[in-house]
Request: fold
Amino acid sequence: MTTVISLGGSIVAPDRPDVPFLRDFSKRIRVYLAGGPERRLIFVVGGGGPAREWQGACRAVAASPTADALDWVGIMATRLNAQLVRAIFERECPHEVIMDPGAVTVFTGRILVAAGWKPGFSTDYDAVMLAERFQADTVVNLSNIAKVYTADPKKDPSAKPIDAIGWDGFRALVGDEWSPGANLPFDPIATKKAASLRLRVVCAAGRDLDNLDAILNGRPFTGTTIGPD
Reply:
């Protein structure tokens, strides 16, 4: 049983690596893996604070940086964070960090760690590609929000949390265009592919490790489930 976890950079490194979180997270993951040899996890790690800071510096200094240039800056931040996560789980993850989700064919060990791929594609998209390649039916999207809302609650006080939504409804929320550094619960390009594969995506707060245990072990949890219509 393989589960893909899109591990938001905002919880791995909100501005710098969050050592207490990473310590607790690694302990919880090892407890989960001890529950059976069939349990395998794929972590796709985001860029977090470093990606936003470095992209912000590029926008401030460069003369009209291209979307590709900004994407590459963010991708390099994901790769740094992914190397950190892979090093933490080195015993369970003998494979090097995956840079191209379309090229990997072998999953050895209990954990596989991936980072950003190329401009135009977020780590959410990488997670969906890896779910397809390794026959995972669920992607757990861990970020700094507990649920998806009907609108941005920071801008719209009438926004309401969503417990479950179909792919058509979710696509209406996030649109169809991807932009580097966009702050969305799941990126539009990944959304389109996940819908075509009829995947189940769970969006939940990454720092709530009791809740993550519940998700991984099939118990009731707090979050938003996005699934086939």
Observations:
- The chain has a mean pLDDT of 91.
- The chain has one domain: 2-227.
- Residues 37 and 110 are 8 Å apart (CA to CA).
- Residues 67-88 form the longest helix (22 residues).
